[in-house]
Amino acid sequence: MRDEVDGIILISACICGPDALLGELIQRHISRLDAPPPLLRLTVDEHTARAGLQTRIEAFLDLLGWRRGHAAI
Predict the structure, then answer these.
(1) What is the pLDDT of residue 35?
(2) Which of 16, 34, 42, 58 matches a 20 to 30 Å C-alpha distance to 51?
(3) Which residues contact 37 (CB under 8 A, 6 or more apart)?
(4) Count of domains in the chain?
(5) What is the pLDDT of residues 8-34, one digit of tens each?
């Protein structure tokens, strides 16, 4: 899986309901992998600003690019 996935972005609509449970289960499953890919969990509600989400996603993509460039060969 490590060669196929650079990172995972998990977006949920709010902190309640099935999204909260599924997000936790996905995070636990990923953490058990030998080389878990980076995970970004975003929770969106009616007060979430677009600029804040964009900044977090851009920073995560920068991290993935840095990791790819500095990966051990």
Answers:
(1) 86
(2) 16
(3) 1, 2, 5, 6, 7, 8, 30
(4) 1
(5) 999 888 767 787 788 889 999 999 998
Q: Which amino acid is at 69?
A: G
Sign of CA dihedral 67, 53, 22, 9: negative
| Residue 53 pLDDT | 92
What's the pLDDT tens digit per position in 29-52? 999 998 899 999 998 888 888 899
Exposure of 2 in the CB half-sphere (CA atoms within 13 A):
9
Residue 2 domain-assigned? no
Strand partners, 9: 40
Quick check: helix, strand or coil at residue 23? helix
Q: Residue 37 and residue 50: Cα distance in Å, rounded?
A: 25
| Residue 14 in domain | yes
With CA atoms as reference, report the closest residue to 19 among 51, 45, 1. Answer: 45
